[in-house]
Amino acid sequence: MKQKTFKAAIAGLTLLLMVPFTPAVGQSTAVGILDLVRQGDFDGARAALAETPHSDIDELFLEAQIFTAQGSPGDAVTIYRAILAVQPDLIEIRQVLAQTLFQMGDFEAARFHFRTLLETDRRDGLRQQYANALRQIQQNIPSGFGASFAIVPSSNINRGTTNTVILAGDPNSGTISQSGRETSGVGFQLGVNGFLRIPRAEGGLFTLTASATQVLYSESVFNVFQPSLSARFENASESGIWSWEAFARRTFRRDLVQPSNIVGVPDTVSNSSANTFGLVFSGRRALSGPNILTYSALIQQTTFDTLDTQSGPSATFKLGVQRNINPSTSINGGITVGRGLPKDDAFKFRSAAVNVGVSKNWTGGWATFAGAEVGLRWFDADFGFTQMERNDRYMTVTASVLNSTYSWQGFSPRVTCNWQTTSSNIGFYDFDAYECNILMTKDF
Question: What's the predicted TM-score (pTM) here?
Answer without folding.
Answer: 0.71
